[in-house]
């Protein structure tokens, strides 16, 4: 295991525990989880520790648990058997890890049950560990988003901590952002020589792996940007197409980045592509300019909707007054998702908790066409990291839907739209930290302007 | 989903079903499995279908099942809900997939239970699908390696099919081998400019991703080759060190490659490194030369042991008669694993079945120091694909073990060994197909000789 400076991480973890202790008065056990098998048990997927565990334990320890009790931290982990050293090398002992993270003691996992009385927890993702949670706590452990009782109190307390990032977290998030910026530049540089999407993906993911990071989510690298979560990479890159790349690095301690750029495969936007690109970019820039503490994220989403609606009116694709169009969600025909979300240890931070983290208490998701996919609806606070990711897409399932076509018949100029057939999907996404009186774009090292993007692609 | 030529795959699958039908007389249901969540449910690991399912269904269909009954094939899969098209695009309908793979019909999964009577199966890896297996078959489904009754009969029948690869499989395996060769060349070329192991890994994995393939197993790219399954990539590359890379591609249909090379980080072996390298290479070459139908794989393993023992005697590291040394497993101090294993849809093919596939019926693993990690003990047959991967390692857990040091005190020249301190781990591994009267090295495009390896690294 890569060794961290023990003092730095132990201090951070101690501060997090103290802040937690101000919010709850019961003990907490958090499990890290185990690997999931891939095609047979000895060939598993990479290990990813539970994000709540990572927040308080600092290190991605496999099959471990921590007991938090006020300011105290105890670690529960089994030392590797001697026979494992042939295959896995000498692993640090539990006592060494405990020291590194500032835990007062390390115990084998078998000791956990006797210390588990009255503890709250949050359900992990892997089924094997989840049954251990039930067994050791000797009670039902509901799924994280449906937690009850002290588990729910714990969830609320952890949300209030994880919503606003501390210095240690911000340092990691900046590392992830920096490598993600490099990955996108590598993807642009690889495009002119690429025959299929996978070649660009290889350049981007290779860059992330080379920095000893992993991927915060399945990469999207596609000429079919109209499929929002596209996971196919076999399409050829054909002249006149746009490539949409939504790729983010995750540091070895689990902190994420999430960035999208869209660029022409030839290095040159067509006039129609550039027109729409500039509309999306105007929304992106306007939203970022608005970010500061106290601003409602919903208002930023609505700003994106307005700027996109205005831009599409200016291009002749939509007709009518912008305020009326947005009132009717007409822009959602082309911008059907939310303008962004929380970012932290998870790319949609704390989405294991459903909307509990993303939505301020008392607020629920709207079912409106233009709001139903909005993942964040809270006033911004200093230390929050959010994405800003407006887009424009021609999604067949939306634009060919008879009910939607009929509903919006009067506001869409379908003939004019047909002239933009070479714009399947555009998204521009950056990671923005809310600062004391303003904002910091962590991914500002990656250009957004069309000319600068063209140059990066052409320089190859 | 990437579209295959429908005829080609349907014909192959039909032949596989017919061969299965000659061995069993009961229906079979095979499940593909589901994705495992990573840090929250909507952010899963990549999907990997069960290998047994892939063998008979041909395509990596998520959350699907097939019913095999004699020559008949029926597909059970739910069509994606209309709401998913925004996020995932238009997915092919079950009926379209059925046609592509030569299934007589497609049904929703809810129809499976009524057709499941008397069917055998093999347990999959993910827990959610495993409970569905139990529920739909309305009986216990034991882990694959401990299957009983008709499930065990099915396992034996599938082993006899999957042991020897058909033309379609060999075509895929050659694709995986070709991309793996390219990845290793890219890794060598990236070495002189690399500061840490991860940079070389990035070049290798990026090459595989660029070909729209994935990884058959967690890559090993390490200057600590003495840790056999090393998954750390943060160590600096320091002059005088060897880099061991065990990296293999897997095609989109699930077929694997598994290749290891070891090269000097400066592009120049030291005299001691070259001496040991040539011992390992001699074992590698001798084992490959011996491969043909009818030869016992155990004999090939023992040949590797002998060649390595002889080489270490010649270098003055071991003392005594080679036959006595091998009899006492003295070579296992430095070559503690088996010389190779089956390769196919799994990198250790069918290891979900324990040793049922690797070991001929009636044979069990030896507990001898030099044999206990041998994963394959069968006579070779035409169509088998095996790895040949002898190695030399200085594993602290072995060489510092007081009992082993005492047991082998008389045969190891510890002072001479100390002169080879710059040789922590060397492995040379290729994928070898057993042909009608000989063998074909699928990974022969990647050099093995020390001079050729040096040249590839130096050319950068």
TrEMBL record, chains A, B:
GO CC annotation, single: cytosol
Entry protein name: Xaa-Pro aminopeptidase
Pfam families documented for this protein: AMP_N (PF05195), Peptidase_M24 (PF00557)
Catalytic activity: Release of any N-terminal amino acid, including proline, that is linked to proline, even from a dipeptide or tripeptide
Domain Aminopeptidase P N-terminal: 8-133
Secretion signal span: none
Keywords assigned: Aminopeptidase, Hydrolase, Manganese, Metal-binding, Protease
Cofactor needs: Mn(2+)
Keyword Phosphoprotein on entry: no
Biological-process GO terms, alphabetical: proteolysis
EC number: 3.4.11.9
UniProt family annotation: Belongs to the peptidase M24B family.
InterPro entries named in the record: Aminopep_P_N, Creatin/AminoP/Spt16_N, Creatinase/aminopeptidase-like, Pept_M24, Peptidase_M24B_aminopep-P_CS, X-Pro_dipept-like
GO molecular function, one term: metalloaminopeptidase activity
């Amino acid at each position: 295991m890569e060794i961290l400076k023990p003092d730095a991480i132990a201090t951070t973890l101690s501060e997090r525990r103290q802040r937690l202790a101000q919010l709850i008065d019961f003990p907490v056990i958090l499990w890290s989880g185990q690997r999931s098998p891939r095609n047979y048990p000895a060939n598993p997927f990479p290990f990813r520790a539970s994000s709540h565990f990572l927040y308080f334990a600092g290190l991605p320890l496999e099959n471990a648990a921590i007991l938090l009790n006020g300011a105290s931290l105890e670690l529960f982990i089994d030392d590797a058997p001697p026979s494992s050293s042939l295959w896995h090398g000498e692993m640090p002992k539990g006592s060494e890890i405990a020291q590194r993270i500032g835990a007062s003691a390390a115990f084998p996992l078998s000791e956990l049950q006797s210390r588990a009385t009255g503890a709250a927890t949050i359900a992990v993702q892997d089924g094997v560990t989840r049954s251990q949670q039930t067994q050791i706590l000797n009670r039902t452990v509901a799924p994280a988003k449906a937690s009850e009782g002290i588990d729910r109190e714990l969830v609320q307390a952890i949300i209030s901590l994880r919503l606003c990032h501390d210095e240690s977290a911000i340092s990691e998030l900046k590392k992830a952002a920096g490598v993600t910026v490099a990955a996108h530049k590598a993807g642009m540089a690889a495009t002119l020589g690429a025959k299929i999407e996978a070649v660009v993906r290889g350049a981007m993911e290779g860059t992330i792996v080379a920095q000893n990071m992993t991927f915060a989510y399945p990469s999207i690298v596609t000429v079919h940007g109209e499929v929002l979560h596209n996971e196919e990479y076999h399409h050829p890159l054909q002249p006149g197409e746009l490539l949409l790349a939504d790729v983010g690095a995750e540091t070895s301690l689990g902190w994420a980045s999430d960035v999208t750029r869209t660029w022409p495969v030839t290095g040159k936007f067509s006039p129609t592509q550039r027109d729409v690109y500039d509309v999306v970019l105007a929304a992106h820039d306007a939203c970022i300019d608005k970010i500061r503490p106290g601003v409602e994220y919903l208002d930023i989403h609505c700003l994106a909707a307005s700027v996109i609606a205005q831009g599409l009116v200016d291009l002749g694709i939509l007709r009518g007054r912008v305020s009326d169009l947005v009132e009717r969600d007409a822009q959602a025909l082309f911008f059907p998702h939310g303008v962004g979300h929380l970012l932290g240890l998870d790319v949609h931070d704390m989405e294991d908790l459903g909307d509990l983290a993303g939505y301020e208490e008392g607020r629920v998701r709207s079912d409106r066409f233009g709001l139903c996919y909005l993942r964040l609806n809270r006033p911004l606070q200093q230390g929050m990291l959010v994405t800003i990711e407006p887009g424009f897409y021609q999604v067949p399932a939306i634009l060919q839907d008879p009910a939607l076509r009929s509903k919006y018949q009067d506001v869409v100029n379908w003939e004019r739209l047909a002239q933009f057939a070479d714009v399947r999907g555009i998204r521009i996404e950056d990671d923005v930290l809310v600062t004391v009186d303003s904002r910091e774009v962590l991914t500002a090292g990656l250009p957004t302007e069309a000319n600068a993007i063209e140059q990066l692609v052409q320089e190859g």
